[in-house]
Task: structure prediction
Amino acid sequence: MNPYVLCFALFLVGVYGVLAKRDLIKIILALGILGYAANLFLVLVGYRADAHYPILEPGVQLGPMVDPLPQALVLTSIVIELGTTALMVALAIRLFQKYGTFDISNIRRLRG
Result:
């Protein structure tokens, strides 16, 4: 099966989790899955069959190389995603302390 199709399926699982779930923890996990799908897509875009890593070594002939830019973007994305996930979990914990539930439909009804 085409890996791009699997990447898109993973993306759809994340979108379903964000739109259909009412639990904050499940929504945070779905956002993580969305991030993994985006990272996987970037890695797939940068992949070239029969290519070598882009590090020059003495005595090694140059051939087709893998594009290092998507890999650098994925590393940056992983770090940013870690920070945003930590922020979302902290907000979810504060909401739980205030309202006593992770259900967003109950949190919307409880104002103040």
In short: The mean pLDDT is 90.
